[in-house]
Amino acid sequence: MKGNINSRAEASYSRGGGYDDEWRDATPVVDDEDTCSAEELEGLFQIKCRIGGESAVSLEKDYVLHLAADSGFTRVAAGLSSSFVHIFDINAERTMQISSLTRIPTPQDNQILNVCGVRFLDDTPNCLLVGESEGSVHLFDLRTQREVARFEEDVECTQGFTNFRGGKNLGDRKTINCFDSNSNGRIICTGTEQSKGEVYLFFYDVRERKHLGGYFESHEDDITALRFHDTNPDLLCSGSIDGLINVFDIREETEDDALTTTFNTESSVQKLNWHKNIYEQDVISCITHTNDFHVYLAEEGDVVATFDRCQITAAAKRRNEANCNVVNAHSTANGDLFLLAGTNHIKGEVLRTLRFNKSLLPMADFIGNKQIVRSSIFEKKSGTLVTGGESGFVTLWTADSTSKDDGLLASCSSELKHKSKKSKKKTPY
């Protein structure tokens, strides 16, 4: 079943194609409020998170659309709607300061292109990948502030396009929506918008600086999310407006053999993440453009749980589901899964986390949030969360010392082990 393609507009908005600010300003504000008293909230959300560091990236109306951190969480990159990328240093005390900034493309290109993602390439904080929607992924050395490589579709390919090591003449370069690099830093994959009825996953060899080819049969609409496995460099999941999540083993020679599992969300995929349950099984979380939350067992093809926007709103103790903004899903060091959700009401002051334990349960409340949050990253070791959003703030959150739990997001006894339901899968082509 295809996703609800009314969500195409939501997909465009989430990628920064954006609704017009005047449209947003003219839209009536829908009233919203908590569903319980302040005293009850205090007891339910026992972890209180406060701002440990914050920086405004611009005086203009720039959204922070993308965040990434290096493996040691010593440096954070923030991709903006204006095509700037800001770099922040994070010290051992978990405070941050801006260290440098760059712009994509480089100034001599004399044009502004949309950033579609940022990612640190390897274990060091020095190599940053920045994707731009016109079809390229740029590799920057942050020590010199120079571009050292550019990965883009080889439109002159004439080989048979049967797997990602081949290619064919595809004409004009395709617009890309998202990209990711694998865990050993050897492969980059990009996902394109639909063009002439086709969508593509393109693969690049980082060391040889060349286009390897791609997959083109497994999705039928814009690819909106790509995520390589955190530790397995050959495992990739992709999501699309067509509602499908596909899992690939890229060691295989053909696309058909590489496709191992397909999930049908019956919606439109916005964000994907990999997790582990207590049995060390791979789990995929999905946030849709309709603000639903799904959890799947990657290998078995089973549905672990699904929560719609109404259920998430109720769990966050808010009244109006139309204002519910589901941001991202993260795992703690113990493998526990939690969901970050906020509100679109007024300036998005409400921001909370919900822990997954068969149902979604209140966990942490963020005090002092002043924007609608669009992206987040989380460090498992220290429990540090960084958010970015529509008012142009990059915010580092720390737990209040009076909170009853140790750390920002303590162990929450995840129930990813509970009995799964079989997914209604469909062949995507």
Would you give an account of this structure?
8% of the residues lie in helices and 44% in strands. It has a single domain (7-422), classed as Methylamine Dehydrogenase, Chain H, CATH 2.130.10. The strands form six sheets. Strands 22-23-24-25-1-28-27-26 form an eight-stranded mixed β-sheet, with helices on one face. It has a five-stranded antiparallel β-sheet with strand order 18-19-20-21-29. It has a four-stranded antiparallel β-sheet with strand order 2-3-4-5, with no helix packed on it. The chain has five helices and 29 strands. The N and C termini lie close together (12 Å). Mean pLDDT is 84; it is low at 1-7, 16-28, 158-162, 164-170 and 410-429.
| The CATH architecture | 7 Propeller
Per CATH, the class reads Mainly Beta
- Main sheet: strands, sense, barrel: 8 strands, mixed
Which radius of gyration do the C-alpha atoms yield?
21 Å
| Number of beta strands | 29
Helix/strand/pairing category: mainly beta
Number of helices: 5
The overall pLDDT, averaged over residues, is 84
Q: Identify the CATH homologous superfamily.
A: YVTN repeat-like/Quinoprotein amine dehydrogenase
- Percent helix, as a range, is under 10%
- Which segments are poorly predicted (pLDDT under 50) over 5 or more consecutive residues? 1-7, 16-28, 158-162, 164-170, 410-429
